Amino acid sequence: MTKKIKKIQVVNGPNLNMLGKREPEIYGSLTLDQINADLAQQAMLLGLDLRFFQSNHEGAIVDKIHEIFDDKIDGIIINPGAFTHTSIALRDAMAFMSCPIVEIHLSNIYKREAFRHKSMLADIVTGQIAGFGHYGYQMALNAIANMINES
């Protein structure tokens, strides 16, 4: 019997395409492409099929969530950026996903401005990683790999 390769979707929200240029003292000096390349290498070692998506547009991200629902994705890593704190539409789209979901943030949103302390996704995601910079993506991938291999 052939083992099915698990599919993991990485979703990045607004302004994450500006990583490496935008406030490196907060978000680090790596670009999103560099983070994705490191993550793809890690996924290959774990035997996972990793897919990447980034948009600055809320509706495009919601459309992507609908698409991956239909694709029967095995796990999601999402950095919703500013939509973390504002998007009920994104929350509603994510709410019907049944796979493990890890919400990540490069910075510790709880040590920043008060408006960043509230995540619209916190009560529907499997877990949340914040404040570890680009390592948060790797931590999220390891967590999802462990969860889907245990199920």
Could you explain how this protein is built, in words?
By secondary structure, the chain is an alpha/beta fold. It is built from six helices and five strands. It has a five-stranded parallel beta sheet, with helices on both faces. Helix 2 runs parallel beside helix 6 (135-150) and helix 3 (58-70) packs parallel to helix 5 (88-95). The protein is globular and about 50 Å long.
The portion of residues assigned to helices is: 25-40%
| Mean pLDDT across every amino acid position | 93
Low-confidence stretches: none
Strand order of the largest sheet: 2-1-3-4-5
Helix-strand string = EHHEHEHHEEH
Strand percentage lies at: 15-25%
Gyration radius from CA atoms, angstroms: 15 Å
Keywords:
single chain
Topology record:
Blueprint: E1 7-12, H1 24-27, H2 32-46, E2 49-54, H3 58-70, E3 75-79, H4 83-86, H5 88-95, E4 101-105, E5 127-130, H6 135-150
Parallel strand pairs: 1-2, 1-3, 3-4, 4-5
Helix pairs in contact: 2-6, 3-5
Short structural description:
With 151 residues, the chain is of the alpha/beta class.
